[in-house]
Amino acid sequence: MPKDGFSRRAVLKGGALLSLGCAFPSVVYGAERRTVLNDASRLNPTPVLRHLTLGGRGSTVLLETLRVELKAAAAEGRPVCASAARHSMGGQSIPRDGLAVTLTGDQPEVDSATLTCRVSAGTRWSQVIRRLDPLGLSPAVMQSNHDFAVGSTFCVNAHGWPAPHGPFGSTVRSLRLLLVDGTLVTCSPAENAELFGLAMGGYGLFGILIDLDIAVTPNLVLVPVVQRMEAGRFAQAFMEAVEGDPQTRMAYGRMSVARKSFFRDALLTVYRPLDKQPATLPAAVSGGFLNTVSRDIYRAQIGNETAKHARWLAETRLNPALGSGIATRNSLMNEPVSNLANTDMRRTDILHEYFVPPERFDDFLEACRAIIPKARAEFLNLTLRYVGADPVAVMAYAPSPRIAAVMSFSQEASPVGEVDMMQVTEQLIDRVVGLGGTFYLPYRLHARRDQIAAGYPRLAEFIAAKRRYDPGLLFRNAMWSTYFA
Q1: pLDDT band at residue 322 under the 50/70/90 scheme
Q2: Which of 234, 263, 370, 466 minimizes the number of CB atoms within 10 Å of its CB?
Q3: CA torsion, points 138, 143, 145, 147, in degrees to nearest 10?
Q4: What is the pLDDT of residues 397-410, one digit of tens each?
Q5: So what's the architecture of 221-455 in CATH?
Q6: DSSP string, 218-261
Q7: What integer pLDDT is reported at residue 298 of this predicted model?
């Protein structure tokens, strides 16, 4: 791009200034007052013409209401997007000047004989655990927090920390999808398999997800084994624990974020079944991360190296000494992300996630040490998880087993903070893609298009299929407009 031209970077920086300056409760154009929706980043205030909240697992009323609304939106040339809690961070769940549908959940139906559970797309994972727990069952894979919706988990193809599984989509037996013309189709790895692979991690661009049949597994009491080690030993130890030990049921890692030991001191936690399982399992409680590190300590890390050292001390020494850590599978996953919610309106929490080939993990750590400490944003947390190979999703981020690096930043809610985050993200993506890895798409839309193509080699196939299934581009969101249009 010539220096005297308008680069994508300059346009996005200008857009950051505009979006942050226009964060009003509502926007008025003439006599028409529109609803303004936002997402978890708090940086995407977006006007929508119409916002509907609908529930009911595939009921006639739900389906007919959606069909009427789709027909009207198509006639007016307005985009449609369905979502649940809008936990994404780049406008992936919001249709500008279009129809926004918020789906709610209901009581899941469980088939204990086949170890499956039918859920509506808007059902939250907390509802699923509440239903499964008394039956001695647990989701095979779910996101690491319970306040996300099951349908949203499929649409972003999220993963969890149960081992040795791939993303959530690998545990979905079938689903029903409402297409652009109002047709309701069943999709699975065997039926309408192409559409199934497109919708898995397809961000709602191929239709409105109605309900899903998901795999469940017996709930168990699990015992953790915690190992502290140098960061350079982590990848081998992690992969051996997950892929080499059939008793491993859940596993995750963390690393010190204090500057003196940044990404050099690691913690590996592996959960295996208790030798003798109790006849009756205790009810699922909210536990896990907040039992080891309080919200106050977590938030105190911002601009405070002493707090970062204190948090690492709590995770590596105090908590293992204070309790056994024994918990049921359901309790470990029954944690709301809202427990760590940021209440400082001057800042916002931004997530990144990178999927790294295990053999290049040390190079990834080196890249992070070179880039992250220089950023204006405060780095708060790194959690490491295993993701098995995903051969089904067209937009797969783990074509072979990966170590997932989930990062949490605290960013200033300002144009300066936004530009800083954009630059850090672009640098990290360049390094990760250069290592043969990729990056997750439901966060801030800060990647370049060439980075998308490099990280997702089936991108052209995905776009071509989108235009074939939805030639009028009815299902659209900010991601489509920024990355794919």
Answers
A1: low
A2: 370
A3: -90
A4: 999 999 999 999 99
A5: 2-Layer Sandwich (3.30)
A6: E--EEEEEEEEEEGGGHHHHHHHHHHS-TT--EEEEEE--SGGG
A7: 86
